[in-house]
Fold this protein.
Amino acid sequence: MATKDYSKYFVAPDLKQAKRRGKEETQVLQFEPIPEDMRQIGRDKRYLLMTYGCQMNVHDSENIAGMLEQMGYTATDREQEADVILLNTCAVRENAEDKVFGTIGRLKQLKLENPELILGVCGCMSQEEAVVHRLLQSYPYVDLIFGTHNIHRLPHLLKNALYSKEMVVEVWSKEGDVVENMPKVRSDGLRAWVNIMYGCDKFCTYCIVPYTRGKERSRRPEDVLREIRELARQGYQEVTLLGQNVNAYGKDFKDINYLFADLMDDVRKIGIPRVRFTTSHPRDFDDHLIEVLAKRGNLVEHIHLPVQSGSSEILKRMARKYTREQYLELVRKIKQAIPDVSLTTDIIVGFPGETEEQFAETLSLVKEVEYDSAYTFIYSPREGTPAAKMEDDIPMEVKKERLLRLNEVVNEIARRKNEAFRGQVVEVLVEGESKKNAEVLSGRTRTNKLVNFRGPKELIGKMVSVQITEPQTWTLNGVWLKESSVRVGV
Ligand code: 5AD
Ligand code: SF4
Protein backbone atom coordinates (compact mmCIF):
# COMPACT_ATOMS: atom_id res chain seq x y z
CA MET A 1 0.00 0.00 0.00
CA ALA A 2 1.31 3.43 -0.84
CA THR A 3 0.57 4.67 2.66
CA LYS A 4 -2.21 4.08 5.10
CA ASP A 5 -2.35 7.53 6.61
CA TYR A 6 -6.09 8.09 6.27
CA SER A 7 -5.93 11.40 8.09
CA LYS A 8 -4.40 12.99 5.00
CA TYR A 9 -7.19 11.89 2.67
CA PHE A 10 -4.61 11.75 -0.08
CA VAL A 11 -3.11 8.50 -1.34
CA ALA A 12 -2.35 8.60 -5.04
CA PRO A 13 -1.72 5.65 -7.37
CA ASP A 14 1.71 4.60 -8.60
CA LEU A 15 2.03 2.27 -11.62
CA LYS A 16 5.52 1.06 -10.68
CA GLN A 17 4.33 0.10 -7.22
CA ALA A 18 1.38 -1.66 -8.79
CA LYS A 19 3.69 -3.84 -10.85
CA ARG A 20 5.68 -5.05 -7.85
CA ARG A 21 3.85 -8.12 -6.71
CA GLY A 22 3.83 -8.73 -2.98
CA LYS A 23 5.00 -12.18 -1.90
CA GLU A 24 2.94 -12.02 1.24
CA GLU A 25 -0.11 -14.23 1.38
CA THR A 26 -3.52 -12.85 0.65
CA GLN A 27 -5.55 -12.19 3.73
CA VAL A 28 -9.26 -12.71 3.88
CA LEU A 29 -10.88 -9.81 5.72
CA GLN A 30 -14.49 -9.48 6.76
CA PHE A 31 -16.29 -6.30 5.75
CA GLU A 32 -16.63 -4.17 8.87
CA PRO A 33 -20.26 -3.22 9.43
CA ILE A 34 -20.93 0.45 8.75
CA PRO A 35 -20.96 2.28 12.11
CA GLU A 36 -24.40 3.28 13.40
CA ASP A 37 -23.69 7.04 13.16
CA MET A 38 -22.91 6.68 9.43
CA ARG A 39 -26.10 4.82 8.60
CA GLN A 40 -28.08 8.05 8.62
CA ILE A 41 -25.76 10.08 6.37
CA GLY A 42 -27.78 9.34 3.25
CA ARG A 43 -31.26 9.66 4.72
CA ASP A 44 -33.57 11.39 2.20
CA LYS A 45 -30.65 11.56 -0.23
CA ARG A 46 -30.13 9.92 -3.58
CA TYR A 47 -27.23 8.36 -5.42
CA LEU A 48 -26.53 7.75 -9.08
CA LEU A 49 -23.94 5.21 -10.18
CA MET A 50 -22.60 5.30 -13.74
CA THR A 51 -20.83 2.05 -14.60
CA TYR A 52 -18.45 1.62 -17.54
CA GLY A 53 -16.55 -1.45 -18.73
CA CYS A 54 -16.62 -5.12 -17.86
CA GLN A 55 -18.74 -7.34 -15.61
CA MET A 56 -16.21 -6.94 -12.84
CA ASN A 57 -17.11 -3.27 -12.71
CA VAL A 58 -20.80 -4.05 -12.87
CA HIS A 59 -20.37 -6.30 -9.87
CA ASP A 60 -18.25 -3.73 -8.01
CA SER A 61 -21.10 -1.28 -8.58
CA GLU A 62 -23.44 -3.74 -6.86
CA ASN A 63 -21.15 -3.60 -3.81
CA ILE A 64 -20.94 0.18 -3.98
CA ALA A 65 -24.73 0.42 -4.16
CA GLY A 66 -24.96 -1.99 -1.22
CA MET A 67 -22.78 0.26 0.94
CA LEU A 68 -24.58 3.44 -0.12
CA GLU A 69 -27.95 1.92 0.69
CA GLN A 70 -26.70 0.85 4.12
CA MET A 71 -25.77 4.50 4.62
CA GLY A 72 -29.39 5.41 3.95
CA TYR A 73 -29.11 6.58 0.31
CA THR A 74 -31.67 5.54 -2.31
CA ALA A 75 -30.95 5.05 -6.01
CA THR A 76 -31.99 7.45 -8.75
CA ASP A 77 -31.31 7.50 -12.46
CA ARG A 78 -31.82 11.27 -12.72
CA GLU A 79 -28.65 13.36 -12.50
CA GLN A 80 -30.63 16.43 -11.45
CA GLU A 81 -31.91 14.86 -8.24
CA ALA A 82 -28.73 13.03 -7.20
CA ASP A 83 -26.80 14.02 -4.06
CA VAL A 84 -23.96 11.67 -4.91
CA ILE A 85 -22.82 10.75 -8.42
CA LEU A 86 -20.12 8.07 -8.74
CA LEU A 87 -18.46 7.11 -12.02
CA ASN A 88 -17.17 3.54 -11.90
CA THR A 89 -14.68 3.69 -14.76
CA CYS A 90 -12.85 1.44 -17.23
CA ALA A 91 -9.23 1.95 -18.36
CA VAL A 92 -8.91 -0.79 -20.92
CA ARG A 93 -9.07 1.45 -24.01
CA GLU A 94 -8.66 5.15 -24.63
CA ASN A 95 -12.18 5.73 -25.93
CA ALA A 96 -13.64 4.38 -22.66
CA GLU A 97 -11.55 6.98 -20.83
CA ASP A 98 -12.55 9.77 -23.21
CA LYS A 99 -16.20 9.03 -22.48
CA VAL A 100 -15.61 9.35 -18.75
CA PHE A 101 -13.73 12.65 -19.07
CA GLY A 102 -16.57 13.90 -21.30
CA THR A 103 -19.12 13.03 -18.63
CA ILE A 104 -17.07 14.62 -15.82
CA GLY A 105 -16.79 17.76 -17.94
CA ARG A 106 -20.53 17.83 -18.51
CA LEU A 107 -21.28 17.35 -14.81
CA LYS A 108 -19.41 20.55 -13.96
CA GLN A 109 -22.57 22.52 -14.67
CA LEU A 110 -24.56 20.38 -12.24
CA LYS A 111 -21.91 20.89 -9.60
CA LEU A 112 -22.13 24.66 -10.11
CA GLU A 113 -25.90 24.55 -9.71
CA ASN A 114 -25.68 22.27 -6.69
CA PRO A 115 -22.42 22.73 -4.74
CA GLU A 116 -23.61 20.12 -2.21
CA LEU A 117 -23.43 17.42 -4.89
CA ILE A 118 -20.64 14.90 -4.27
CA LEU A 119 -18.97 13.84 -7.50
CA GLY A 120 -16.71 10.78 -7.28
CA VAL A 121 -14.54 8.74 -9.63
CA CYS A 122 -13.64 5.11 -8.92
CA GLY A 123 -12.80 1.95 -10.85
CA CYS A 124 -9.80 1.23 -13.06
CA MET A 125 -9.11 4.78 -14.28
CA SER A 126 -8.56 5.98 -10.75
CA GLN A 127 -5.71 3.44 -10.43
CA GLU A 128 -3.78 5.31 -13.15
CA GLU A 129 -1.35 8.00 -12.07
CA ALA A 130 -1.87 10.08 -15.20
CA VAL A 131 -5.63 10.10 -14.75
CA VAL A 132 -5.45 11.23 -11.13
CA HIS A 133 -3.06 14.05 -12.08
CA ARG A 134 -5.36 15.14 -14.87
CA LEU A 135 -8.36 15.14 -12.52
CA LEU A 136 -6.46 17.14 -9.93
CA GLN A 137 -5.36 19.69 -12.48
CA SER A 138 -8.27 20.06 -14.84
CA TYR A 139 -11.31 18.82 -12.91
CA PRO A 140 -10.78 20.21 -9.39
CA TYR A 141 -14.52 20.11 -8.69
CA VAL A 142 -14.35 16.30 -8.39
CA ASP A 143 -14.77 15.56 -4.66
CA LEU A 144 -13.65 11.98 -4.33
CA ILE A 145 -11.33 9.51 -6.06
CA PHE A 146 -10.91 5.95 -4.82
CA GLY A 147 -9.40 2.83 -6.36
CA THR A 148 -10.33 -0.78 -7.01
CA HIS A 149 -8.51 -2.10 -3.91
CA ASN A 150 -10.26 0.09 -1.39
CA ILE A 151 -13.89 0.00 -2.48
CA HIS A 152 -14.77 -1.32 0.98
CA ARG A 153 -13.56 1.99 2.41
CA LEU A 154 -16.26 3.96 0.58
CA PRO A 155 -18.42 4.80 3.62
CA HIS A 156 -15.45 6.45 5.36
CA LEU A 157 -14.21 8.16 2.21
CA LEU A 158 -17.65 9.52 1.42
CA LYS A 159 -17.97 10.83 4.93
CA ASN A 160 -14.58 12.55 4.56
CA ALA A 161 -15.63 14.03 1.22
CA LEU A 162 -18.81 15.41 2.77
CA TYR A 163 -16.90 17.19 5.50
CA SER A 164 -13.74 18.15 3.64
CA LYS A 165 -13.14 21.09 1.33
CA GLU A 166 -10.27 19.26 -0.36
CA MET A 167 -10.50 16.54 -2.95
CA VAL A 168 -10.37 13.17 -1.15
CA VAL A 169 -8.02 10.77 -2.95
CA GLU A 170 -7.38 7.27 -1.70
CA VAL A 171 -5.97 4.83 -4.23
CA TRP A 172 -3.90 1.93 -2.97
CA SER A 173 -1.44 0.76 -5.57
CA LYS A 174 -0.63 -2.49 -3.84
CA GLU A 175 -3.55 -4.75 -3.20
CA GLY A 176 -3.36 -7.67 -0.90
CA ASP A 177 -6.62 -8.61 0.59
CA VAL A 178 -9.91 -10.22 -0.26
CA VAL A 179 -12.81 -8.59 1.53
CA GLU A 180 -15.74 -10.90 2.26
CA ASN A 181 -19.34 -10.06 3.06
CA MET A 182 -19.58 -6.66 1.43
CA PRO A 183 -23.19 -5.52 1.20
CA LYS A 184 -24.66 -5.90 -2.31
CA VAL A 185 -27.61 -4.66 -4.29
CA ARG A 186 -28.09 -7.16 -7.11
CA SER A 187 -29.80 -5.83 -10.21
CA ASP A 188 -32.43 -8.55 -10.50
CA GLY A 189 -33.51 -11.62 -8.59
CA LEU A 190 -32.70 -13.84 -11.53
CA ARG A 191 -29.05 -13.65 -12.45
CA ALA A 192 -26.13 -12.89 -10.16
CA TRP A 193 -22.42 -12.21 -10.54
CA VAL A 194 -20.11 -14.02 -8.17
CA ASN A 195 -16.46 -13.03 -7.92
CA ILE A 196 -14.18 -16.01 -7.61
CA MET A 197 -10.90 -14.17 -7.92
CA TYR A 198 -9.45 -10.71 -8.26
CA GLY A 199 -6.56 -9.32 -10.28
CA CYS A 200 -4.42 -10.71 -13.08
CA ASP A 201 -0.77 -11.83 -13.20
CA LYS A 202 -0.61 -12.44 -16.94
CA PHE A 203 0.77 -9.05 -18.00
CA CYS A 204 -0.24 -9.27 -21.65
CA THR A 205 1.83 -6.46 -23.13
CA TYR A 206 -1.14 -4.34 -24.27
CA CYS A 207 -3.19 -4.60 -21.11
CA ILE A 208 -3.52 -2.19 -18.19
CA VAL A 209 -5.58 -4.57 -16.03
CA PRO A 210 -2.70 -6.21 -14.10
CA TYR A 211 -1.76 -2.69 -12.95
CA THR A 212 -5.26 -1.47 -12.11
CA ARG A 213 -6.60 -4.68 -10.56
CA GLY A 214 -3.45 -6.02 -8.90
CA LYS A 215 -2.15 -9.53 -8.37
CA GLU A 216 -4.24 -12.70 -8.64
CA ARG A 217 -6.06 -13.44 -5.40
CA SER A 218 -8.62 -16.25 -5.21
CA ARG A 219 -11.56 -16.28 -2.86
CA ARG A 220 -11.67 -19.34 -0.63
CA PRO A 221 -13.80 -22.14 -2.13
CA GLU A 222 -15.99 -22.37 0.96
CA ASP A 223 -16.85 -18.66 0.66
CA VAL A 224 -17.67 -18.94 -3.07
CA LEU A 225 -19.76 -22.10 -2.59
CA ARG A 226 -21.61 -20.64 0.38
CA GLU A 227 -22.52 -17.54 -1.66
CA ILE A 228 -23.80 -19.66 -4.58
CA ARG A 229 -25.83 -21.95 -2.30
CA GLU A 230 -27.41 -18.89 -0.74
CA LEU A 231 -28.26 -17.47 -4.19
CA ALA A 232 -29.84 -20.81 -5.13
CA ARG A 233 -31.87 -20.72 -1.93
CA GLN A 234 -33.09 -17.23 -2.80
CA GLY A 235 -34.35 -18.49 -6.15
CA TYR A 236 -31.66 -17.15 -8.49
CA GLN A 237 -31.68 -19.00 -11.81
CA GLU A 238 -28.20 -18.20 -13.03
CA VAL A 239 -24.79 -17.28 -11.66
CA THR A 240 -21.78 -16.02 -13.58
CA LEU A 241 -18.44 -16.70 -11.92
CA LEU A 242 -16.17 -13.72 -12.44
CA GLY A 243 -12.46 -13.24 -12.66
CA GLN A 244 -10.01 -11.54 -15.01
CA ASN A 245 -8.52 -14.96 -15.65
CA VAL A 246 -10.78 -17.55 -14.01
CA ASN A 247 -8.56 -20.39 -15.19
CA ALA A 248 -5.89 -19.26 -12.74
CA TYR A 249 -8.33 -19.75 -9.86
CA GLY A 250 -6.73 -21.47 -6.88
CA LYS A 251 -3.15 -21.29 -8.15
CA ASP A 252 -2.38 -18.89 -5.32
CA PHE A 253 -3.58 -21.22 -2.56
CA LYS A 254 -0.66 -22.45 -0.49
CA ASP A 255 -2.53 -24.78 1.84
CA ILE A 256 -4.89 -26.63 -0.52
CA ASN A 257 -4.72 -28.10 -3.99
CA TYR A 258 -7.98 -26.83 -5.46
CA LEU A 259 -8.22 -25.33 -8.96
CA PHE A 260 -10.92 -23.90 -11.23
CA ALA A 261 -12.02 -27.35 -12.47
CA ASP A 262 -12.48 -28.47 -8.85
CA LEU A 263 -14.58 -25.40 -8.15
CA MET A 264 -16.75 -25.97 -11.23
CA ASP A 265 -17.23 -29.60 -10.26
CA ASP A 266 -18.49 -28.50 -6.84
CA VAL A 267 -20.69 -25.71 -8.24
CA ARG A 268 -22.21 -28.32 -10.56
CA LYS A 269 -23.68 -30.06 -7.52
CA ILE A 270 -25.52 -26.92 -6.35
CA GLY A 271 -29.16 -26.66 -7.39
CA ILE A 272 -28.91 -23.51 -9.45
CA PRO A 273 -30.12 -23.98 -13.06
CA ARG A 274 -27.33 -22.23 -14.96
CA VAL A 275 -23.69 -21.50 -14.25
CA ARG A 276 -21.53 -19.34 -16.51
CA PHE A 277 -17.99 -18.05 -16.12
CA THR A 278 -15.91 -15.31 -17.59
CA THR A 279 -13.23 -14.69 -18.64
CA SER A 280 -10.96 -17.53 -19.66
CA HIS A 281 -7.32 -17.49 -20.61
CA PRO A 282 -6.47 -20.24 -23.13
CA ARG A 283 -3.09 -20.83 -21.53
CA ASP A 284 -4.51 -22.10 -18.22
CA PHE A 285 -7.50 -23.95 -19.71
CA ASP A 286 -6.70 -27.56 -18.78
CA ASP A 287 -8.06 -31.00 -19.69
CA HIS A 288 -9.61 -31.48 -16.27
CA LEU A 289 -11.73 -28.38 -16.81
CA ILE A 290 -12.90 -29.66 -20.22
CA GLU A 291 -13.81 -32.96 -18.59
CA VAL A 292 -15.84 -31.23 -15.88
CA LEU A 293 -17.61 -28.89 -18.34
CA ALA A 294 -18.53 -31.89 -20.49
CA LYS A 295 -20.62 -33.19 -17.57
CA ARG A 296 -23.00 -30.29 -18.39
CA GLY A 297 -25.98 -30.20 -15.99
CA ASN A 298 -26.03 -26.60 -14.84
CA LEU A 299 -22.65 -25.89 -16.51
CA VAL A 300 -23.74 -24.28 -19.78
CA GLU A 301 -22.28 -24.99 -23.21
CA HIS A 302 -20.75 -21.57 -23.70
CA ILE A 303 -17.09 -20.64 -23.39
CA HIS A 304 -15.73 -17.16 -23.90
CA LEU A 305 -12.15 -17.84 -24.97
CA PRO A 306 -10.31 -14.65 -25.94
CA VAL A 307 -7.79 -15.35 -28.70
CA GLN A 308 -6.68 -11.72 -29.38
CA SER A 309 -4.85 -12.64 -32.61
CA GLY A 310 -4.51 -15.54 -35.05
CA SER A 311 -0.80 -14.92 -35.63
CA SER A 312 1.73 -16.73 -33.44
CA GLU A 313 4.20 -13.91 -33.97
CA ILE A 314 1.74 -11.27 -32.72
CA LEU A 315 0.65 -13.55 -29.85
CA LYS A 316 4.30 -13.77 -28.84
CA ARG A 317 4.65 -9.99 -28.82
CA MET A 318 1.41 -9.76 -26.86
CA ALA A 319 2.96 -12.21 -24.32
CA ARG A 320 -0.14 -14.39 -24.52
CA LYS A 321 2.04 -17.49 -23.96
CA TYR A 322 0.32 -19.72 -26.53
CA THR A 323 0.63 -20.14 -30.28
CA ARG A 324 -2.08 -20.21 -32.95
CA GLU A 325 -1.63 -24.00 -33.12
CA GLN A 326 -1.97 -24.47 -29.37
CA TYR A 327 -5.14 -22.38 -29.34
CA LEU A 328 -6.63 -24.36 -32.23
CA GLU A 329 -5.73 -27.61 -30.49
CA LEU A 330 -7.55 -26.42 -27.35
CA VAL A 331 -10.61 -25.54 -29.46
CA ARG A 332 -10.48 -28.97 -31.06
CA LYS A 333 -10.44 -30.68 -27.66
CA ILE A 334 -13.32 -28.54 -26.39
CA LYS A 335 -15.43 -29.24 -29.48
CA GLN A 336 -14.72 -32.92 -29.24
CA ALA A 337 -15.89 -33.04 -25.62
CA ILE A 338 -18.84 -30.64 -26.10
CA PRO A 339 -19.87 -30.78 -29.79
CA ASP A 340 -22.66 -28.16 -29.48
CA VAL A 341 -20.48 -25.70 -27.56
CA SER A 342 -20.82 -22.03 -28.37
CA LEU A 343 -17.46 -20.28 -28.52
CA THR A 344 -17.05 -16.52 -28.34
CA THR A 345 -13.89 -14.46 -28.25
CA ASP A 346 -12.09 -11.11 -28.02
CA ILE A 347 -9.84 -9.94 -30.84
CA ILE A 348 -7.50 -6.98 -31.12
CA VAL A 349 -6.61 -5.67 -34.58
CA GLY A 350 -3.80 -3.27 -35.35
CA PHE A 351 -1.41 -4.36 -32.60
CA PRO A 352 1.86 -2.42 -33.14
CA GLY A 353 3.48 -3.55 -36.37
CA GLU A 354 0.76 -6.08 -37.32
CA THR A 355 1.29 -6.88 -41.00
CA GLU A 356 -1.43 -7.65 -43.54
CA GLU A 357 -0.32 -11.32 -43.51
CA GLN A 358 -0.58 -11.47 -39.73
CA PHE A 359 -4.03 -9.90 -39.85
CA ALA A 360 -5.04 -12.44 -42.51
CA GLU A 361 -4.07 -15.17 -40.04
CA THR A 362 -6.63 -13.74 -37.62
CA LEU A 363 -9.30 -13.86 -40.33
CA SER A 364 -8.46 -17.45 -41.15
CA LEU A 365 -8.51 -18.47 -37.48
CA VAL A 366 -11.95 -16.89 -37.05
CA LYS A 367 -13.20 -18.89 -40.05
CA GLU A 368 -11.66 -22.07 -38.71
CA VAL A 369 -13.05 -21.78 -35.17
CA GLU A 370 -16.45 -20.42 -36.30
CA TYR A 371 -17.17 -18.28 -33.26
CA ASP A 372 -20.80 -17.60 -32.37
CA SER A 373 -19.79 -13.99 -31.79
CA ALA A 374 -16.72 -11.89 -31.08
CA TYR A 375 -15.85 -8.61 -29.42
CA THR A 376 -13.43 -6.87 -31.73
CA PHE A 377 -11.24 -3.90 -30.88
CA ILE A 378 -8.65 -1.64 -32.43
CA TYR A 379 -5.49 -1.71 -30.34
CA SER A 380 -5.31 1.23 -27.97
CA PRO A 381 -1.93 2.13 -26.42
CA ARG A 382 -2.07 2.22 -22.61
CA GLU A 383 0.54 4.29 -20.82
CA GLY A 384 2.91 2.20 -18.71
CA THR A 385 2.36 -1.06 -20.64
CA PRO A 386 5.19 -2.61 -22.73
CA ALA A 387 3.25 -2.48 -26.02
CA ALA A 388 2.83 1.28 -25.71
CA LYS A 389 6.60 1.55 -26.31
CA MET A 390 6.62 -0.74 -29.36
CA GLU A 391 7.14 0.81 -32.74
CA ASP A 392 3.91 1.06 -34.71
CA ASP A 393 3.98 1.93 -38.39
CA ILE A 394 0.42 0.89 -39.19
CA PRO A 395 -1.77 3.91 -40.03
CA MET A 396 -5.08 4.24 -38.18
CA GLU A 397 -6.94 4.12 -41.50
CA VAL A 398 -5.55 0.64 -42.14
CA LYS A 399 -6.51 -0.48 -38.62
CA LYS A 400 -10.06 0.77 -39.09
CA GLU A 401 -10.37 -0.96 -42.40
CA ARG A 402 -9.12 -4.23 -40.85
CA LEU A 403 -11.68 -3.96 -38.09
CA LEU A 404 -14.45 -3.60 -40.70
CA ARG A 405 -13.18 -6.60 -42.63
CA LEU A 406 -12.95 -8.67 -39.46
CA ASN A 407 -16.45 -7.69 -38.35
CA GLU A 408 -17.83 -8.72 -41.73
CA VAL A 409 -16.36 -12.19 -41.34
CA VAL A 410 -17.48 -12.48 -37.70
CA ASN A 411 -21.04 -11.38 -38.54
CA GLU A 412 -21.32 -13.64 -41.53
CA ILE A 413 -20.40 -16.66 -39.38
CA ALA A 414 -22.70 -15.53 -36.54
CA ARG A 415 -25.61 -15.26 -38.97
CA ARG A 416 -24.85 -18.68 -40.44
CA LYS A 417 -24.60 -20.28 -37.01
CA ASN A 418 -27.87 -18.72 -35.92
CA GLU A 419 -29.53 -19.88 -39.12
CA ALA A 420 -28.91 -23.46 -37.97
CA PHE A 421 -31.44 -22.84 -35.18
CA ARG A 422 -34.34 -22.33 -37.58
CA GLY A 423 -37.14 -24.65 -36.44
CA GLN A 424 -35.27 -25.80 -33.31
CA VAL A 425 -36.68 -25.59 -29.80
CA VAL A 426 -34.45 -23.89 -27.25
CA GLU A 427 -34.61 -23.42 -23.49
CA VAL A 428 -34.91 -19.72 -22.64
CA LEU A 429 -34.52 -18.02 -19.27
CA VAL A 430 -36.93 -15.10 -19.64
CA GLU A 431 -35.29 -11.87 -18.49
CA GLY A 432 -37.97 -9.28 -19.22
CA GLU A 433 -39.52 -7.13 -21.90
CA SER A 434 -37.43 -6.61 -24.99
CA LYS A 435 -35.57 -3.28 -24.94
CA LYS A 436 -36.93 -2.41 -28.38
CA ASN A 437 -40.55 -3.47 -27.94
CA ALA A 438 -42.41 -3.83 -24.64
CA GLU A 439 -44.88 -6.23 -26.31
CA VAL A 440 -42.10 -8.72 -26.83
CA LEU A 441 -40.29 -10.78 -24.17
CA SER A 442 -36.63 -11.56 -24.32
CA GLY A 443 -34.34 -14.03 -22.66
CA ARG A 444 -31.27 -16.13 -23.24
CA THR A 445 -30.43 -19.68 -24.22
CA ARG A 446 -27.90 -21.69 -22.27
CA THR A 447 -25.37 -20.56 -24.88
CA ASN A 448 -26.20 -16.92 -24.12
CA LYS A 449 -28.04 -16.19 -27.36
CA LEU A 450 -30.70 -13.52 -27.11
CA VAL A 451 -34.18 -14.81 -27.98
CA ASN A 452 -37.26 -12.61 -28.61
CA PHE A 453 -40.80 -13.97 -28.55
CA ARG A 454 -44.35 -13.01 -27.60
CA GLY A 455 -45.91 -14.28 -24.37
CA PRO A 456 -47.54 -13.20 -21.11
CA LYS A 457 -45.47 -11.15 -18.65
CA GLU A 458 -45.87 -13.94 -16.05
CA LEU A 459 -43.17 -15.80 -17.93
CA ILE A 460 -40.54 -13.33 -16.76
CA GLY A 461 -38.11 -15.16 -14.48
CA LYS A 462 -39.11 -18.58 -15.81
CA MET A 463 -37.46 -21.16 -18.03
CA VAL A 464 -39.56 -21.70 -21.17
CA SER A 465 -39.33 -23.47 -24.51
CA VAL A 466 -39.23 -21.33 -27.64
CA GLN A 467 -39.24 -22.53 -31.22
CA ILE A 468 -36.96 -20.43 -33.39
CA THR A 469 -38.71 -19.13 -36.49
CA GLU A 470 -36.58 -16.19 -37.57
CA PRO A 471 -32.86 -16.35 -36.84
CA GLN A 472 -30.94 -13.10 -37.28
CA THR A 473 -27.30 -12.11 -36.88
CA TRP A 474 -27.46 -11.13 -33.21
CA THR A 475 -30.84 -12.44 -32.07
CA LEU A 476 -33.17 -15.37 -32.54
CA ASN A 477 -36.88 -14.63 -32.94
CA GLY A 478 -39.30 -17.39 -32.08
CA VAL A 479 -42.61 -18.59 -30.71
CA TRP A 480 -43.28 -19.65 -27.18
CA LEU A 481 -44.36 -23.29 -26.94
CA LYS A 482 -46.96 -23.14 -24.22
CA GLU A 483 -47.41 -26.82 -23.51
CA SER A 484 -43.99 -27.98 -24.47
CA SER A 485 -41.71 -29.57 -21.97
CA VAL A 486 -38.97 -30.05 -24.51
CA ARG A 487 -35.59 -29.19 -23.06
CA VAL A 488 -32.62 -29.13 -25.30
CA GLY A 489 -29.11 -28.25 -24.38
CA VAL A 490 -28.87 -25.07 -26.40
N1 5AD B 1 -6.42 -2.12 -26.73
C1 5AD B 1 -7.46 -2.74 -27.30
N2 5AD B 1 -8.15 -3.73 -26.73
C2 5AD B 1 -7.73 -4.14 -25.50
N3 5AD B 1 -8.19 -5.10 -24.69
C3 5AD B 1 -7.45 -5.11 -23.58
N4 5AD B 1 -6.50 -4.15 -23.64
C4 5AD B 1 -6.65 -3.54 -24.85
C5 5AD B 1 -5.97 -2.49 -25.50
N5 5AD B 1 -4.92 -1.88 -24.96
C6 5AD B 1 -9.29 -6.01 -25.06
C7 5AD B 1 -8.83 -7.47 -25.08
C8 5AD B 1 -9.48 -8.01 -23.84
C9 5AD B 1 -10.75 -7.19 -23.76
C10 5AD B 1 -11.40 -7.19 -22.44
O1 5AD B 1 -10.32 -5.90 -24.11
O2 5AD B 1 -9.34 -8.07 -26.23
O3 5AD B 1 -9.76 -9.39 -23.94
FE1 SF4 C 1 -5.34 -8.25 -19.51
FE2 SF4 C 1 -4.14 -10.48 -20.42
FE3 SF4 C 1 -4.87 -10.30 -17.81
FE4 SF4 C 1 -6.76 -10.52 -19.70
S1 SF4 C 1 -5.18 -12.06 -19.21
S2 SF4 C 1 -6.77 -9.07 -17.95
S3 SF4 C 1 -5.86 -9.37 -21.40
S4 SF4 C 1 -3.32 -9.06 -18.86
Summary: Residues 1-7, 485-490 have pLDDT under 50 and may be disordered. Residues 92-93, 206-207, 306, 308, 346, 348, 377, 379-380, 382 surround 5'-deoxyadenosine (ligand 1) (CB under 6 Å).
